[in-house]
Amino acid sequence: MKKNLFKIFTLTFLTASVLFETSCKKENLNEDLLVDGVSGYKVATKNWDASVPKSWYSLENRLIKETPNWAPPIAARAFGYIGVTLYESVRPGMSTHPTLVGQLTDFNFVPSIMPNKAYNWPIVANAAIARITKDLFGNVSVANINRIDSLEAANLAAIQIADNPSTQLINRSVSYGQSVADAVYSWSLTDGGHQAYLNLFPAYTIPTGPGLWQPTPPAFSNPLLPYWGNNRPFVTANTVTGMPVAPFPYSTQVGDTFYNAALEVYNTVNNLTPDQQNIALYWADGGGTFTPPGHMMSIVTQIITDKNLSLDKAAILYAKAGICLADAGVCCWKGKYDFNVLRPITYIRANFNASWNSLITTPPFPSYCSGHSTFSGAVMQMLTYQYGSNTSFTDYSKVASGFSARSFSNFLAAANEAAVSRLYGGIHYSFDNERGLIAGQAIGQNIHNLNW
To answer: pLDDT (tens digit, 9 = 90+) per residue, 406-447?
Structure first.
């Protein structure tokens, strides 16, 4: 589990020296050993790999797929709290990195480690993520509860085999990880989104008037999560700079901007190339999938793997991505219900072709702006800040679903493709996608600007 043999050798040498000089038990010395001159750290977080959090994020995406009512904003919110939990749980082993307490809205407390005591950071992370996952996924199946328990046990067993931590060290590390998860979960209870999966379609009076959203085929259901935009953001600035500006004025006049945008959707879907159709389906990420936030987090996990990031760097990246997704959901959903713009299928059936259908099913909420564009814009902008504008990568997220992997010259190219996929799918106007990207990128910038 540790990153290199030199650090293992150094730690072994120090332990042996202390044993020789004090004649104390090895277990006690290992627990209270000082490393890098910092009291209380057996091994700094940077000296461990990211296998534990990667295993959990893979399971999170499975849980999203298999748990009822886990709509994109709910999945995004969960990733936000899981990321903060991971970061804060291993941060005491990252001596130069500050807490997010006081930086995130109303986040005022996280427990401290015991002074002059060592912690095994993979064990801490494992216990913390297991605990917050159970808290957030309150409606998972019995089978998936068992999967959560099994993964926690399997990770702990692997750490024990690799590193042989003492019982005291294990218990101390588990207890601390759970206490961080409890603090983050307590904070989450007051954000407005707690257990929203129990009621996706609360009572809501649908505004009426020209250009306003109407229920869409085939289900013609009530709107999903109409109050989500009132939830507390993780970063307060995102409710200002991360909000979409007003859409173009509604019009059915030939040649007007809105008319032309709807006509573009109509003509594009009617004349899709094979590649455009593939792009639309690749990024569809609809019901029964890991959702657009899950797709973004799958890419983040892949970047962590490709770059062989250590536990500390992975924790930072997961936390940044999770906060990006959570706030993208809040800001995008506020825009949707502030402006209540009708979907292309409604406009097209009323003005161009009464029997027209989109390629992918239109989801049950207003059009402006695009959720996928906002989610991907936020995360890909954050990754661009992190790794630069010339970092290429290949997305393998949907290979298991029968798609070919897709390669991109940089992160924003992937965000742009995710955005335009909604035009190809027939569920968004181009201005939905373009302004969603802009709002998402502002969110990514605000999160990058936090003190990490």
So the answer is: 999 999 999 999 999 999 999 999 999 999 999 999 999 999
Domain ranges, ordered by start, for the chain: 5-188, 201-448
CB atoms within 10 A of CB 355: 5
DSSP 68: T
Nearest to 368 by CA among 439, 424, 433: 433
Location of structure tokens 């009572």: 203
Confidence (pLDDT) at 88:
98
Indicate whether 26 pLDDT > 70: no
Q: What are phi and psi of 341, to 5 degrees?
A: -80, 135
Neighbours of 8 (CB within 10 A): 14
48: DSSP letter:
B
Q: Where are the alpha helices (DSSP H) in 271-410?
A: 274-282, 291-306, 311-339, 344-351, 371-387
Helix (H) or strand (E) holding 408: strand 406-408
In angstroms, rounded to a whole number, what is the distance separating the alpha carbons of residues 330 and 67? 21
Domain over 201-448 is classified CATH 1.10.10.200 = no
pLDDT at 17 over 90: no
Topology alike, domains 5-188 and 201-448: yes
What whole-number distance in Å separates Cα of residue 384 and Cα of residue 450? 15
CATH number at 5-188: 1.10.606.20
DSSP 250: P
The model carries a pTM of: 0.91
Q: What is the DSSP letter of 439?
A: H
Q: What are the residue ranges of helices labelled H in 93-141?
A: 121-136
In DSSP terms, 212 is beta-bridged to: 341
